[in-house]
Write the structure tokens for this entry.
Amino acid sequence: MSIPSETKTDSRLSLILLFAGTLFVSASLMFVLQPLFGKILLPLLGGSPAVWNTCMVFYQTILFLGYLYAHFVSTRFNYHRQIQIHALIIVISFLALPLGLPENTVPPTDNNPTLWLFWTLFLSIGLPFFVVSTTAPLIQKWFANIGHKTSDDPYFLYAASNTGSLIALLSYPFFLEPNIGLTNQKFDWSIGYVLLCLLIVSCAIILWRSKDIKVTSKDHINLNTPLPFSKKLYWLALSFVPSSLLLGLTNFISTDIASVPLLWIIPLTLYLLTFVLVFSKWNDSIHPVMVKLQPVFLLPFIAYAFINPADLPYWAYLILHLIAFFFAVMVCHGELAKNRPSTQHLTSFYLIMSFGGMLGGMFNTFVAPFIFNGIYEYPIMIVAALLLRPWPTHTLKKDLLIQISAPVILIFIGWILYIKTQDLLAYFDIIVISLILLALSSYFLKNKPVAFAFTIGTIIFLSLSLHGLSSHTLYQERSFFGVLAVRESTLTDNKNQPEIYHELFHGTTKHGAQRLSEELATTPLTYYSRPGPMGQLFKEYDSSNQNWTIGVVGLGAGALACYAKPSQHWTLYEIDPLVVDIARNTDYFSYLKRCSYDSTMRIGDARLSLEHEPDGKFDLLVMDAFSSDSVPTHLLTKEALEIYFKKLKPNGILAFHMTNRHLLLKKVLSIHAENMHLSALIQEFKPTQNIPLVVDTDWVVMAKTPETIAPLNVSRLGYWQKMPLYFDMQPWTDDFTNIVSIWK
């Protein structure tokens, strides 16, 4: 019910602080719970961006259900009944405390774990997260009816909610995770949840005692006027596109820019910041500026990010994407805030907004991976965001036809060129210059949203087609764990004779390569080369490893299998079935067919798979698990190392691949070696000769006794040395990890 303005004489600041504080605490708990529970799930599914995106869809789904509940009770019941129902829901939610996974929780290994992850999240945190998600619309609706002088427009409270989200998001990796263990985090969150419930009760008491409440539900229902369907559809689009764009950019930067830890925080921070800004009192001044500036910043973004990707450092490339993302979301959310309804439709507004956010997440998680083999939903949503720019007041159908026709003609011309021209790359420079000029000319269409969006879309489409052709990609596919690509590249020998070879990429990171000639096809390359640490290890133990039982975590292209001997037994562990399919496909790589003798393939998370192996099984265990450039942190904890050494024989060797662009992973293993009284050697290998496809790589070997790895230490095959000591970080455990402390 909307209270007439003349009755709203209460001006107490304490009421604003109470209701805003409740929303702040609620949003903070929501955005602490998300990474907290993601960390609980980490040992089961690793650190793939798809895990994060799937969790995001779950959170958006529960958020929508919470908003649906708030809309239902606020339009069907009087305020006394609302309070009673909500109190009952809160009491029931306490059954889910304390936080934790259900017993015997194991993800499926033979199919996509998305539905399993959804169900696990629902059982574990569904109830408390539902209560938290109802707070924003319900508390604002209650505030609109307590008779405060600002009750006519309570949307400013949404800024307080998103401020809480923003602070919680940034505090988790930089304050909570480095200083508070996971067990204490779960306990502290439960305390915070109890505090939130007390604040909700306080708000309910204020509402219950309000003299302005009419306790019959008919009054406020009759005041409602129907919302036009077009208005609802517009709200839906304005929330759908930014949500999809957020997840698309998160996936894109992790796949195509850099697999940098915590990089996903930046887009989400900007996303939340836009809500804070547009629902503040400054939006009327900010929004027109954002609309004008968006095309200005879009032009260098299109030129450098799509048409002609320059050889920029990853951070500069990242900044271009983040700026374009920020302006796109600011314009969409600015339009959303500008078109917000009166308080009588407040819960409808938030319900549609949450529904759009949920649909955006579902599109990226459930639809895009099955219809695209790359992160193509990202550029599609860039175009969709441009279509949502403010339209002229009167747009004729004839004008729309003209705006659409030019991009369609350009797409048709580009398609003809793509089909008819045998050697399109010969015209690469001319095409690039033409596209840049087209991008510059598109600026003059900025006040014609349809023409502007479709022209930019045409440019992106032609650019992606051109660069896909120039990258010589033989195969590209997308799985739950990321985008995998097999590319054909060329080596030139001393006689300038070109030689074709194949490379496997996971995101931006090379995961293996193979030369195709018969005499070189069984030669391990890149991180596994014979001159490198792995080649040295197998050569040094050549006389004693004839009957070794060997485990390898992380398959890649299968190059390590070429160290196998007929009398050895190898077990290969790989979490992504698509990697196995590629490594077994001889059109791309033939390492497994040529080199693998007595071997077993196990699909699933290696840590879980190893727990089912007999104790003391392996003579050598090679840890080479990477998601793009990142080693999943659950494979680096004290508990993980205890499992590895439990599965190794007393004189067994653990070899750990540490090559990384962004993290000082040796620091984690050094501290473990010191605390667990293990012997450890490290080699940060740099080739001394210019050998094709032999690259810099870092490896650590560990054993229970120094005698086991002493042959490596005294050999002249490579420069093995003792691990450096570190004293500025506590050991990583399943309860405690700190990514920030090992950034290079």
In short: Residues 13-45 form the longest helix (33 residues). The two ends are 56 Å apart (CA to CA).
